[in-house]
């Protein structure tokens, strides 16, 4: 993995002052604060922002999940965005416009996703980005786990945000068993990203982070059946693929 070792500017040049740096977590009020994730020992950086204007209205059209059969493709039928692609900071606007249903073209959600791709690529120092924009109606990854990735960006545009755990609340020896109670003895320690927040989660494959990947899970499904809308970015280290 070569992206995280690319030459990086000093943290101070990005305006991060760290007043809310809490152990392995950096909470910030600006995009620039997310650069704190590059610090050794920081495994989660969160830009606690409001959902950009207009996105909630766009997402309202998603509606509840229809009662479809097992072979149905409800996302496509309902015009729900469900996109997986490899893109670049320069190409992401056109790539998203081509991949999404026509009703989303030029809207605030695409504009924000383009901004986040460019921000993410700048933070990681990678030339290409793997992008997923998923409508998630079920429980997703309901068991606490650490991802085997380098650095992942998550932003929930609609619905509840990702749950995460402070390091000192986790029994890492219990990860992978499918037993949340064994991982976490005190459910009051669960922390939650807000809708619209931008989270950078350092995974097991980030250099020097083995055994320290940020532990997290998907939130429970909305009982109304309304899908979450989740943007997930990873670095793509082989742009020739
Ligand atoms: Fe995950």
From TrEMBL:
Domain of life: Bacteria
Region described as Disordered: spans on this chain: 209-228
Protein's UniProt name: DUF1826 domain-containing protein
Organism of this sequence: Azospirillum thiophilum
Lineage: Bacteria, Pseudomonadati, Pseudomonadota, Alphaproteobacteria, Rhodospirillales
